[in-house]
Fold each of these.
Amino acid sequence: MPETVFTNARIVLADEVITGSVSLIDGRIAAIDSGPARQGEDMGGDYLIPGLVELHTDHLENHYRPRPGVFWEPMAALHAHDAQIAGSGITTVFDAVRIGSDTDMPEMLEHAEKLVHAVRQGGAAGWLRAEHFIHLRCELPSHDVVAHFEALADHPSTRLASVMDHTPGQRQFRSLADYKRFYARQMGRTPEELQAFVDARQADHDRYSASNRRAIVARAHLLGLAIASHDDATLAHVEEAADDGVAISEFPTTLEAASAAHDAGLAILMGAPNVVRGKSHSGNISATDLVAAGLLDILSSDYVPFALLQAAFLLPQRVEGLDLSRALATVTANPARAAGLDDRGEIAPGKRADLVRVAAHAPLPVVRSVWREGLRVS
């Protein structure tokens, strides 16, 4: 490619924001210059930031299953998801695909295979705006989750596995009363039906969770996948994660668990919607409080793609002493590093030219242009 120059930009670097220009050659950042404007595409004083890196989004599944019992064509669902991801400034995305059947979804592997195949086909054919990887969300109390993992894990597109256990009465829903209130609305079941569901889930946990966790963790290490724990709530949960060689603690639910994960060297991931809303949707710890305490490394858009950029620009307004460079690192450099992607996440010579032009119009940042490896994708 010929040299491309973006000039008159507020460039967000790892430790400062400068006004200047960035030049790109062959999809990489070639040089960064401060001071007088060079000849090039005028950014008009807008921010130029690294492309966002998203490690855990359920959004592809939401496009594939837009209503209960309605399943969309997988590639069409992927294209809709990809357009929204790129339009939100995300240039690298780990699509979370749940594995492990339950009574509501006994054919889970069939659906997971369709989504994973679409991601792999779309990426290989060059049809996608963002670069997509697979994040396998492994539901441990499921009887067939290990078989699903074996079917989908051994492929270059699969880079991350999270070990999850949504059994009522622990982790995300330590309070059974909270669990029942939440799912009574979601599932539309009578109290008697909901109690039977809780009893069945707890029985599955007792039967399957521990052995499934051991099998998946061992196999993930053999395949070189990054591993995440999920909804750690206690010191024992974090100790188990550390013993398993987990790299990322996703959505710790208590200050005790977050502090222990930090001390154990795990990267702590929380939801950007938690930051935007100012609280957890399920009543757990505030992500903003963890940032203020120095206990948060990574933000994930989770279920709202644009929340990633929105939260990064909100944090300096809400946390005293936090600058934009460090806030943006939670959605760029830190997730890239945790996933082993050292070629992106920062505007620096030699890094991939994954860039986003952002106009900071109060009260929201506005994505104006997005480039992946120097090519405009949105």
Amino acid sequence: MADGKSFSMRVKEEAAEQISSRRHCQIAELAAMISLCGVGIDKKKIKIQTENVCVIKKCFTLLKKTFNIDSAITVRSGEGFRHHLYILTVQSEERVREVLEAVKHPVIQGLDPEAPVDDLILQRNCCRRAFVRGCFLAAGSVTDPAKSYHLEIVCPTEDKAKQLCSCINSFWQQEEGMEAKIIARSKSGGRRSFVVYLKEGNQISDLLNICETYRCLMEMENIRVEKEIANSLNRKLNCEMANMVKTINAAQEQKNDILLIEERIGLERLPAELEQLARIRLEDTEISLKELGEKLTPPIGKSGVNHRLRKIRKIADDLRAGKRYP
């Protein structure tokens, strides 16, 4: 964890640094943050409230760059607040209307204040990118990729979640395994929120790329490579261990068959090629079938050894069943 900050916080800080040079993209990102962090918005007041200082700084910067508005910021803390609460307000009725008209806020259009962002804001690919970044900044989080893969963005309404989900999925064009999903989550007081989430490493990496958080993307990709190498080594080791156990068990079964034959009828009654194999196997139960074949006179291959061992197994099984050996 760099500087004691979580991976999620580092992603947000890098996302906050990304300022699009295009005004329409700046408006799309601001629209996202107003949609998910705006409270009590009307035609006279814009109020954005969050516990994340990155969101307030980004909103302040976008309002200044896009509209030349110096908004007021207040900080609340103390009893009743787990963290500092940052509140940005714009109260000039003229400037409020200018911003709300630019972001096509539903209040200006006489719609439900909780309606999603107007789709006209999201027509360009670059604007959808800025919108997704703004949504993650406002209400997103991502787990440390060294521990697990999970990214989510919490939306107050299902319609807003569906809009964000559709926006993210538009970058993937129905690629197999690349799809953001939504789950409803109960909150205190019987309310519900709707969470847009990703649970695959490649999905999260791609979303970091969409948000243009390239430093964090590189950090995550390095971790993914390290985890994949470690997983590959573990798989290889587990496979080798399983094969070793299988070989040891098979050798022990072969030894048991040979000992049974030796006890019941004596190895000398076996055909010469089977007797030779049986005696070598009794001497060394750890060598492989290939090595076993190389010790025979004349040497034979692995398949030939297997064929002879099957014959020995058949004789042992017949003796166990009470059959007489010819």
Amino acid sequence: MQKIAVLGSTGSIGTSALDVISRFPDRFKVSSLSANSNTGLLSRQIKRFRPRAVSVVDKRRAREFAKTHRRLRVYEGAEGLCSMIREVEADMVVVGIVGSSALLPIMTAISRIRRIALANKEAVVMAGDIIIREARKKKVSILPIDSEHSAIFQCMASGGGSGVKKIYLTGSGGPLLKTSKKELRKVTPQMALNHPKWKMGRKISVDSATMMNKGLEVIEAHHLFGLEVKGIEVLIHPEAVVHSMVEFVDGSILAQMGPCDMRVPIQYALTYPGRDVSPVKQFNFSKIKALHFYSPDLSKFPCLEMAYEACRCGGTYPCVLNASNEIVVREFLKGRIRFTDIAKVIQRVLGLHRDSGNPGLEEILEADRWGREKTKEILNVVHS
């Protein structure tokens, strides 16, 4: 019986992970859960999965929650989440937390837990060198949950893991694929959130619309699979049937295909290296008339090119890219800036940044703080 901690259990990844776990009652046991502030859903999850402990990041809600769940250990705040990871035994942790706030929990998990099922890309973008180095040192397995990185992981495993020449990261193109460059200024948050293929959280949906999500995935793939950025190519694939491909030095290309259901890569990570029956609807190839692949329009989606450049520069540039993006996406969702301002502001912040060179964790956290503060400064100018 494997004990599993699910971080971000009330989000889309967390709820899908719990659905998978529920189908293997003789194999998996939930040891702990964490949520940011959705204590209503967390209460229902507790009744069903009966964890030993939970963490609520919102301190006020954590205190209120603890009063009504006196028999359960409730950790509060970001510090409490890390304490829960250290103190509550688990064989595997599912990281479904969105954004940079996952970095310290991931580093804590690496010191305590041997298998990490990772759906958070921002932490790897910020501190990929540090995360991978520590995971290797501690002999911790990092199993990707993102559909694209799970696809690459599966293709590499099938190919023996050696002789890789190139990675093809596919993406549907998001909700604005057919929107003209001229019309992007008029894009509303509702339009940006209307993803044609995947049901995702608000932040990642906007990242998909700007194609920053694909840029962050490029940086993540660079760290997870050890390829230089020139060996990672993004392809627009509107049908979202091929989740990514790997080309080997002998000319062979392996593709991982399947339905748009996050339970597939989640289950693969949880049951790796084996495979088990899944509730996912069987794929019907006879209904597919054609598969299309296009190179992305970088003039229309400049965030993707910025991510490539940040990856090439290395150091703290990817961290600042991510920090600035988190702030501008939040402002866009609040209706305070235009869709096209997202890329413009990030570009200005990157232009002002000076890399510290070979950063440690403290330098990464300082770059993250600087990127957020500088973005807010620029946004104040935009607002005025």
Amino acid sequence: MLIKNSEILSVGTEILLGEIVNTDAAFIAGRLALLGVSHYYQAAVGDNCGRLTEHIRAALERCDLLVLTGGLGPTYDDITKETAAAVMGRKLVPDEKAMSTLRGYFSGRGRAMSPANEKQAYFPEGAEIFYNDHGTAPGCAILDEERGKMIVMLPGPPRELTPMWLDKVEPYLRRFTGSMLVSMNIGVCGMGESDVETVLHDIMVAASDPTVAPYCGEGDVRIRVTARCNTPEEGREKCRGMTEQIYETDVGPFIYGVDESLEEAAVRLMREKGLHISAAESCTGGLLTKRLTDVSGSSAVLEYSAVTYTERAKTAFLGVPPELFAEKTVYSPECAEAMARGIMAASGADIGVGITGIAGPDGGTEEVPVGTVFVAAVRGGRVIQRALRLRGTRQHIRYLSTNHALMMVIEAARG
């Protein structure tokens, strides 16, 4: 059997009520794409046997592979296995390994296993079982080779589903897929999506394998380079050639990394160069520092930063002279530079960053509206400055400000 197309059906009334965000479907869709499996439909259905049966039957009329998420728990409304087995004409039978694992799970926590949990060790006859290393609900796959149909059932919690998919389901599915897709994502900051598309238009039109497509990230742009291949190594090699070509275009100076976030790229580059950074933040309230410290290994480049929200704090901790506020105001490139130099002097860092501005929604004026942010990055005698006019919510303005700051850090680190 060769799997050509797929659907995802998420089971759970809590999804329909908006009580949880269905991140499972997004994750699985991305992984199916990498397997080279087409994906045309997604749906969510509540914990109702009749409606679930109807959706499963309809999906199997359209697709080779149906992925069901959720509804594998021990309660009465966890009906995914029972319903899917009935549709496929299979009876449920116990699996001794799953039963033993369940008993061990509860015993190891000093609890007795309830009879309700036993249903989690029953599976459609002939199913491939995916044992759960992170919870009590195993997943499984039912294959009907005669009809050319497969149903994969997975637990709903992402902390259980994600490792089960990567470690067990995906290797199993590779037996039934042909070529695969491998992608590289080039990160661009400082150019809009339309500008990137204009520069890369001829490359995108001419490219067929690998393909090239830009899309908006959260305050940046990603260029996805995707190759069809038989092995991951072959795919990466094809993508690398196209990536090198894109670096040579006018987009190149705005590229911060491949398959990494802005903060990961900044920390990686500073570690490679042996550089240290400190930041003095006002309107971003420590967000830049948080993003840096979210990256493993950031302790090698960051000793400390400071949130200096008021003029008094900027003077007391950073040595910004009070007369600068009177002459240039706190919302000025001069203030951002003075903050950067002050934190450098205090910390001994190689790179200092200063951020000051108005994130809103209050505090703006006609002369200095909400979204006005000044960022300075200093390394030695070099000063990189940006005056930003940003729009959006308070949270978005703060996030975009740190995006620009991180790109300036990368520029300063490159020298």
